[in-house]
Specification:
Distance between the termini: 33 Å
Strand order of the largest sheet: 6-5-4-7-8
CATH superfamily of the largest domain: Ribonuclease H-like superfamily/Ribonuclease H
Number of strands: 8
Radius of gyration: 22 Å
Order of helices and strands: HHEEEHHHEEEHEEHHH
Number of domains: 2
CATH class of the largest domain: Alpha Beta
Structural class: alpha/beta
CATH topology of the largest domain: Nucleotidyltransferase, domain 5
Largest sheet: 5 strands, mixed
CATH architecture of the largest domain: 2-Layer Sandwich
Number of helices: 9
Shape: elongated
Bound molecules: zinc ion
């Protein structure tokens, strides 16, 4: 389903429309009043980010959400979500600053808060999966401009979801626990010839590998093309849109692109997927 800027402007004309959406998302059956106990008797208070119960008790639907205490209008927030989710390669804070007419600092904060909607912690993979590690250029805090590479571990279920995690290094001690945590036992795991993966057969997995060093990329079903496809999209986006990402924040971008990848076959617009989480409670990101 397509969701265009026209659809967006029609559905979200005002801050009140956005607030109503957050309210409905946070309380699908209507909020229960803490003062009188009545259910779904709340109505919006004009010009404020709150609702009032028939008894006079006020609640604010944005409390604890990514919008909590933000002075930026909800319409701008929703516009930012729309822009970020509609653009395949993501949107930089600089672009958001221009589009929304807010400061860079504000745009940066908004984009990181929005990335909180795109976190998926509970995915598990099974069946035929591919595992691989890659390196993305980034700065470590305190490096004083010196670039170095940050390793990322990625696992993808063929035809299904990806899980990608920024890791300390690519040793067996680091990589294997990620696989054990995310992949169900008895799954078949395909990798390249990197040594740590040879230990997978001792962990209740079936394992086979192609030898990239010897230019072997595909041997019948054995290959890592799916995870490599994910890496190239991730790198294209990070290098093209964000130029460089510090190690500290890299996981958030990785989450954003994993989120997109995992919904690539969904018929629903990416923006509407992201809106499904607007009522959820989050810790402040930055
Ligand atoms: Zn009440």
């Amino acid at each position: 389903m397509k969701y265009t800027i026209k659809d967006f402007n029609k559905q979200f004309k005002t801050d009140a429309d956005c607030l109503e959406y957050i309210y409905r998302n946070k309380y699908p059956d209507g909020a229960t009043c803490a003062q009188c106990g009545r259910k779904d008797q709340f109505y919006p208070l004009e010009g404020r980010r709150s609702y009032s119960c028939a008894c006079g008790h006020h609640i604010s639907p944005t409390v604890g959400t990514i919008f909590h205490k933000s002075p930026t209008s909800l319409k701008s927030w929703f516009t930012a979500i729309f822009l970020m989710m509609t653009s395949k390669n993501g949107v930089s804070a600089k672009e958001l600053e221009r589009h929304l007419g807010v400061t860079y600092k504000c745009a940066w904060r908004i984009s990181h808060q929005i990335r909180q909607l795109l976190k998926e912690d509970r995915l598990t993979l099974q069946g035929t999966v591919e595992a691989d590690e890659t390196f993305i250029g980034g700065k470590r805090p305190g490096d004083q401009g010196k670039r170095d590479k940050t390793p990322i571990m990625g696992i993808v279920e063929r035809g299904g979801n990806v899980v990608a995690k920024v890791v300390e290094d690519v040793s067996a001690r680091t990589l294997l626990p990620v696989i054990v945590e995310k992949v169900l036992p008895q799954s078949t795991i395909y990798t390249d010839e990197w040594k740590p993966y040879r230990r997978l057969i001792h962990r209740d997995f079936k394992h086979d590998s192609v030898n990239h060093g010897k230019k072997e990329y595909v041997r019948a079903l054995v290959h890592t093309n799916s995870i490599e496809g994910f890496w190239s999209q991730l790198k294209r986006s990070i290098h093209g849109t964000f130029h460089s990402v510090s190690r500290e924040h890299l996981q958030k971008y990785v989450n954003e692109f994993s989120y997109r990848y995992n919904r690539r076959k969904s018929g629903k617009a990416m923006f509407l997927h992201a809106l499904d989480g607007v009522g959820a409670l989050h810790e402040p990101a930055v």
